[in-house]
Amino acid sequence: MTTEEKILVAAREEFQQAGFGGARMQKIADRAGINKASLHYYYRNKEKLFQQVLQKDILRLMIPVSMVLRDPSLSLEQRIRTFVKTTTQLFMDQPNLLLFIMQELNRAPERLLNLVRDILKEHGLNDDESRTFRGQLEEGVKNGTLKPVDPEQYIASVLGMCMFPYAARSLVMELLEKDKEAYQNFLEQRQEELITLCRRMIFRSDEPED
Amino acid sequence: MTTEEKILVAAREEFQQAGFGGARMQKIADRAGINKASLHYYYRNKEKLFQQVLQKDILRLMIPVSMVLRDPSLSLEQRIRTFVKTTTQLFMDQPNLLLFIMQELNRAPERLLNLVRDILKEHGLNDDESRTFRGQLEEGVKNGTLKPVDPEQYIASVLGMCMFPYAARSLVMELLEKDKEAYQNFLEQRQEELITLCRRMIFRSDEPED
DNA sequence: GTCTATACACTGATAGAC
DNA sequence: GTCTATCAGTGTATAGAC
Fold it and tell me: Distance between CA A194 and CA A188 in Å, rounded?
């Protein structure tokens, strides 16, 4: 692991935990096991370092998510399963990733939205709209295979169901009166249940069709 | 409006936007239209001021939410409707409230969880467990009125569906390719759709029963 | 490339006049 | 209660030796 990488890892931890304003260059240097001056040697200043970290994290979140939403090879059924699995895996691995991005996207939207758009454009190369999540939902509603639903409202719901318990971990923990261990358990069991619940909102039967 | 209140409003805006570390006492003073020294006259230091703001905001969020979850006078059907309506109204009014609390709850959980617990204890005086959201779901599943579901997983899902589009506003906006105005529209239409979707996950029919 | 030492700006907080 | 002036502490960033 190069010094450059060690710095990025250390910086990510610090930025995710403290936010840009609360993060301290000294702490990042400590975590990375180097001197504060070396930090400025690799990344000219705090802002540049932050940009690097944030860009990497946005990629880490947006690429898998937007891919699952648009991958033309997936059936509707498979897409739901894949979406649940992908997000669960991602946030089990990176517990603070989502909230960090939500935070910074909210703090300075104009600075980041162009970046996000480029990522979505570059990695969402599927131009067959009928083979996206949205397109499949639209078609299913039109021909009556699915229960009537606004595709975008449904997508937002799936996003919320999959992501919110990770982003709002402490809040949900308290509302459900669970401790850390019980909540971890809860999240692991959630995958199966999520698929069932997502299906029920649109499918006419609880039985899978493919 | 007293100076004290003006400060709290100004401080909330600044803290919500910049976080504790990024917030500047000077900016709070400017927003409140007073001098920086007066800030310290009313609230000894930054930390105290922050605590005041955060406590008020936690109350603003947790009281209505936990009340809807436990109010013994609500039927299951009514509870879903009320939950959707309450959260929608709250976040339309206070767009940054939820994300701010998620942020701070994540940044320093140990400092805030006791506060949250006290609030929940004080305002969740319903000791008839069978008349809570959880209790009603449990009973419905047991006697077959409802589709089989884990009550807590369902509650977490409803929370996510209602709250996530507000907390992750920019993220969802981009994934759905909407601008600010279109997204506002989307959120207004969402109320109706939310009730339908929440019902479908547990009720055997789309028709309301009461 | 990595260190020590230091410059420089900023911020939270206080003293004291009015 | 509200202001001006100012201090002390901290944090980013750089200079320069090795």
Answer: 11
- For residues B98 and B167, the answer to whether their CB atoms sit within 8 Å is yes
Q: Which CATH architecture has domain A54-202?
A: Orthogonal Bundle (1.10)
Give this prediction's pTM.
0.96
Q: How many residues does chain A have?
A: 210
Single-letter amino acid, residue A206: D
The 10s digit of each residue's pLDDT in A67-120 is 999 999 999 999 999 999 999 999 999 999 999 999 999 988 877 888 888 888
B12: which 2 tokens?
A: 């909330």
Residues 6 or more apart whose Cβ sits within 8 Å of residue B177: none
Whether A1-44 and A54-202 share one fold: the answer is no
Q: What is the pLDDT of residues B153-180, one digit of tens each?
A: 999 999 999 999 999 999 999 999 999 9
Q: Which residues of A touch B194 (CB under 8 A)?
A: 153, 157
* Domain B55-200 indexed as CATH 1.10.357: yes
A196, closest residue in chain B (CA to CA): B201
B24 touches strand C (CB under 7 A): yes
Cα dihedral A44/A103/A195/B158 (nearest 10): 170
